[in-house]
Design a protein that fits this description.
By secondary structure, the protein is of the alpha+beta class. It is built from 13 helices and eleven strands. Helix 7 packs antiparallel against helix 8 and helix 10 crosses helix 12.
Length: about 350
């Protein structure tokens, strides 16, 4: 119902002030392996304003996700060449949506986006004892070396759990086939567990839009450590940085200041000391920051004003310090900063 209402409200906003109305040609597939859940949804839709969509643009399926996926992909391919689709995969735990299925989505539908819930703490709690690197968990990089590390990490409390979470996220990203993997945590105070909400896509613009939603809502999403630059795998800073990043205004201010300190070195390393296109920087930083494109450009603007970076026009020549940075501009660490700060 959240999805149906979201598309309906988007259509209302789309047509504000238009004389010739536009319609969003959306088709919905809702599936669950529990028949009672499917029938409850059917009755809920029948009792709503969307009752006329049933059997037309709304299809209900009593199937497991892995059985339903080929049918959905075939329907999307039949209807459109671009393969634009959003998969909201709201699983109960961590085993109902295999990484191989997500890879199948991106192999067949390059324009697709996936929003995945994953009970990451439930998996770690399952591995609290000896654990079992069975096929259902081995797809997340759970093997003997990981189990040995987890036995050590879990004794250190929050930093150890955070390192294990990041290690699992890195494996999920690796096996998903998605270029961009944007993971953040939702914490439940009732059962003291983290639920991972991950957005996966092949598009930097889609990743930026998802991050903008996190910043706009400022609700219960968070992660441990900094938001400016972090690593999904092992990040040694987690052993000393245990602060929570919660998308607050204070977090955004700290993140932008950290970016100002970190971006020159990042640009230098990514470019080998030469120029780097802004678009390439946004793509290369895409999986290790909570910053939106707007945040990164804001920090670059400040660095340009301070003459710590130089901004080159596509046709050649430098812009003046502090000039508006555009997507087609290239960035380069200033010579003075190279000599004194990056060696």
């Amino acid at each position: 119902m959240v999805i149906l209402n979201a598309i309906f409200n988007a259509g209302v906003r789309l047509n504000e002030g238009r004389q010739k109305p536009l319609s969003i040609d959306a088709v919905y597939h809702f599936g669950d392996e529990n028949r009672e859940h499917v029938e409850f949804l059917r009755q809920t839709i029948l009792d709503s304003q969307f009752r006329d969509l049933l059997g037309k643009s709304v299809a209900l399926h009593h199937k497991q996700f892995t059985d339903l996926l080929p049918l959905v992909i075939a329907d999307i391919k039949r209807r459109q060449r671009q393969g634009r689709a959003i998969f909201v995969l709201d699983q109960f735990g961590y085993a109902d949506v295999p990484m191989s299925s997500i890879r199948t989505i991106f192999d067949n539908l390059p324009k697709a986006e996936v929003i995945l819930t994953f009970s990451i703490d439930a998996l770690l709690n399952y591995l609290q004892g000896e654990g079992d690197p069975a096929p259902v968990v081995s797809q997340f990089g759970v093997n003997e070396p990981f189990l040995r590390l987890w036995q050590e990490w879990k004794l250190s409390g929050q930093p150890g759990r955070a390192m294990a979470q990041r290690a699992l996220m890195a494996q999920m990203h690796r096996y998903s086939g998605a270029r961009f993997f944007t993971p953040f945590m939702m914490f439940s105070n009732t059962d003291n567990r983290h639920m991972l909400i991950a957005h996966l896509s092949q598009s930097q613009a889609a990743r930026d839009k998802m991050l903008s939603v996190h910043w706009a809502l400022k609700n219960t999403f968070r992660h441990i450590g900094r938001g400016s630059l972090f690593e999904l795998g092992f990040d040694a800073r987690l052993t000393t940085e245990t602060s929570l990043f919660e998308f607050s205004d204070a977090d955004r201010g700290n993140m932008r200041r950290e970016l100002e300190a970190e971006l020159p070195k990042q640009i230098f390393e990514l470019s080998g000391g030469g120029p780097l296109a802004l678009g390439d920087l946004l793509v290369l930083m895409g999986n290790k920051t909570a910053a939106t494109n707007k945040d990164i450009i804001h920090s670059l603007q400040r660095l340009s004003e301070a003459r710590e970076i130089e901004v080159l026009r596509p046709q050649g020549g430098f812009t003046r310090a502090g000039a508006v940075i555009r997507p087609d501009h290239q960035l380069r660490v200033s010579r003075q900063l190279k000599l004194f700060s990056l060696q």
